[in-house]
Design goal:
- The strands form two sheets. Strands 1-2-3-4-5-13-6-12 form an eight-stranded mixed beta sheet, with helices on both faces. Strands 7-8-9-10-11 form a five-stranded mixed beta sheet, sandwiched between helices.
- It has 254 residues and is α+β, with helices and mostly antiparallel strands.
- The chain is elongated and about 60 Å long.
- The protein contains eight helices and 13 strands.
- The longest helix is centred in the C-terminal third of the chain and has 16 residues.
- The mean pLDDT is 94.
């Protein structure tokens, strides 16, 4: 059995029905990422790789869990199983590399935001911190630092980011110390990525950047989707107007 790339993603779209993850939308709509199936499970099992995330759907298939290049993949990956069958298979294939974790899904509610409150949060950035849109010089700073690369790393280059992305950076004396940006894009929205340099955390920078980015999305008619890696991120989302949905299982593959 062999794994092959999927060109026509409409063939596997039904496998992901009801799975409300915008990274899945992004891949199936052709904006970002890659799709795979297995010849023995054609149209019955599929894998989507979008950024750091791998989504497994349909009938559990070992060949897809051992996705193309997995053994040599130097990247950190987050494996997202659709059900318990996929979970068991991931644990079987990666007994020592896959760490089971919990993430926090946030409800997608387009009309939930309160612009006046978001403006107050955006204006409450710490003294000396300047918020601005991510332009070319800021993009180059972001991409040059490991802690901030995920703000823009899913785009081919600055031109691609400028054409499809949207982001807010927090600068202190011209240096990027935090930001909120589009990790990925899909029809009608973005998936938010928020990062703050470690020595500037717990000062309200993430709150200010997140609020300003949500306001920019509202102005452009985009939905700012949020998925939380941890309870801190979920709490920040609720602070900005979102509502918690549910916990779900992932495996961090390092």
């Amino acid at each position: 059995m062999s794994v092959c790339a999927v060109g026509d993603k409409t063939r596997i779209k039904a496998l992901f029905d009801g799975w409300q993850e915008t990274l899945i939308y992004s891949c199936l709509e052709g904006h970002m990422g890659e799709a795979y199936t297995c010849d023995a499970y054609e149209n019955k099992a599929a894998l989507l790789i979008v950024g750091d995330f791998c989504y497994f759907a349909g009938e559990a298939c070992r060949e897809l869990v051992q996705y193309p290049g997995a053994a040599q993949d130097p990247c950190f990956r987050i494996l997202v199983p659709q059900n318990a069958c996929w979970e068991r298979l991931i644990e079987e294939v990666y007994p020592f590399r896959a760490a089971k974790r919990v993430r926090y899904a946030i409800k997608k509610e387009p009309d939930v935001f309160k612009p006046d409150e978001l403006e107050r949060w955006a204006d409450a950035a710490p003294s000396g911190i300047v918020l601005q849109n991510i332009d070319r010089p800021v993009y180059e700073q972001v991409m040059a630092q490991g802690w901030s690369r995920d703000l823009c790393s899913q785009f081919r280059d600055y031109e691609d980011y400028a054409a499809r992305g949207i982001g807010i950076a927090a600068l202190y004396k011209g240096t990027v110390v935090g930001g909120a940006s589009s990790y990925t894009v899909y029809d009608g929205g973005i998936e938010i990525e928020i990062d703050t340099r470690e020595d500037y955390r717990r000062r309200g920078i993430a709150t200010a950047c997140g609020a300003r980015l949500i306001l920019e999305c509202i102005k452009r008619g985009l939905y700012p989707s949020w998925d939380a890696q941890n309870k801190w991120s979920a709490a920040l989302a609720e602070k900005l107007g979102y509502h918690f949905d549910r916990e779900y299982t992932v495996y961090e593959l390092s």
